[in-house]
Amino acid sequence: MSALATPGYGRAFAFFREAAGPEWDAYTRHAFVEQLGDGTLPRASFLHYMRQDYVFLFNFARAWALAAAKSDTLEEMRHAASTVAGLAEGEMALHVEVCAREGIDKDALFATKETQENLAYTRYVLESGYSGDLLDLLAALAPCVLGYGEIGLRLAAEGRETPYAEWIATYAGEPYQAICREVGALIDGAIERRLGADFTAVPRSRRLAERFTTATRLEVGFWDMGLRGS
Ligand SMILES: Cc1ncc(CN)c(N)n1
Q1: In this structure, are residues 7 and 153 in contact, taking their beta carbons and an 8 Å threshold?
Q2: Does residue 77 fall inside a structural domain?
């Protein structure tokens, strides 16, 4: 596999990604992603997805705020809190801008009724944090942040003509890639601090990888929902 296909987001990500096996490709090479890349995705599907994703990101920012509360060190807390800011100021701004151009204002975006796929995913992540520790929560959070980083890099490198270039540029761009590297470093630090440098040999790592894979599967469901449209 090429270096581009496995971006450098850290040791734990590489371990979880490998453990997810074909589920990872089902997520990062989903038909929705391919249609974003080649420009064939129907606009209605894209807008349906963007509206759902705005609400998703609001709940997801909540989960990162929970990660700050579950942190054991100031460094972990700072990383988690800066990810909340990155989501609220960076990623969600894309959704507001794209939807505003289509006549969907912020209030309408925020009032979007969540689909079951959206509910299932965000509540799974939040529950991972409520019932588990920081590692459980980070394992559930990781596919979202890092998967989109990987997708953005690949689609940007393919450089195909598409009306979704702005979406691709957001996830391939340096601000989002910097968040990915920070999150990768946060997960590596958190897991090594609690399970040791040889964490892949510790049985708990397997359970964390299962959590990562479950969240990966929920990402697939989210794309399916987007493709289905409203
Ligand atoms: C469903 C989903 N997963 C991941 C991302 C990227 N943070 C997102 N915006 N939406």
Answers
A1: yes
A2: yes
4 lies in some domain = no
Rounded CA gap, 167 and 230, in Å? 20
| Residue 147 domain-assigned (yes or no) | yes
Cβ of 142 less than 6 Å from ligand 1 = no
Question: Which residue out of 57, 98, 164 has the highest number of ligand 1 atoms within 8 Å of its CB and is therefore the one to mutate?
Answer: 57
Query: Residue 14: is it exposed, middle or buried by C-beta count within 10 angstroms (0-12/13-18/19+)?
Result: middle
Asked if 75 is an active-site residue, the reply is no
Domain of residue 133 covers 12-228
Q: How far is the CA of 129 from the centre of ligand 1 (A)?
A: 18
- 104 lies in a domain? yes
Catalytic residue among 76, 117, 144, 182: 144
Global pTM value? 0.95
Q: Is the pLDDT score of 82 beyond 60?
A: yes
CATH of the domain at 206: 1.20.910.10
- CA atoms 131, 135, 136, 138: torsion sign: positive
Q: What is the pLDDT of residues 43-60, one digit of tens each?
A: 999 999 999 999 999 999
Q: Is the CB of 145 inside a 6 Å radius of any atom of ligand 1?
A: yes
Instruction: Please count the structural domains in the chain.
Output: 1
The token pair at 31 is: 């038909």
pLDDT digit string, tens, across residues 116-131: 999 999 999 999 999 9
Q: Which atom of ligand 1 is nearest to the CA of 57?
A: 9
The complex's ipTM works out to: 0.98
